[in-house]
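Example record

One chain of 115 residues, shown exactly as stored in the release files.
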Amino acid sequence: MNKPSAECLAALDQYDLLERTLGGDHPYAQAAMQQVLELAPREFLSNLAQELGVLPKPIGYTETGEAAFCLEDVMQHLGIEPDEAQQLIDQFIQEREAAGLGSGLIDPEDVHVAH
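Predicted structure tokens for this chain:
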């Protein structure tokens, strides 16, 4: 598994500082976390999310190794309804775009389904 780069670890330190001083809900802390997520190796994030029980098993991966998840599987795993899922997705996209990272969404055509 790829380990986080020095740049990723520095971004994580920055997030930690902002989270402790401003709180995790502060826009600066949220932007810093988005930066960490952008810099961290996808395999590392996917494994961490699964170990923490945050996400279900991915349905497949992109050419670059980025895990892809089925929305219905995530909703069932988290025990949330479609309207709550849509709110979380909208918030996720807004936070990424505010941090200059793009939407983070994956085109289903780019996913190679795991067998």
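Notes: The chain has two domains: 1-40, 54-115.
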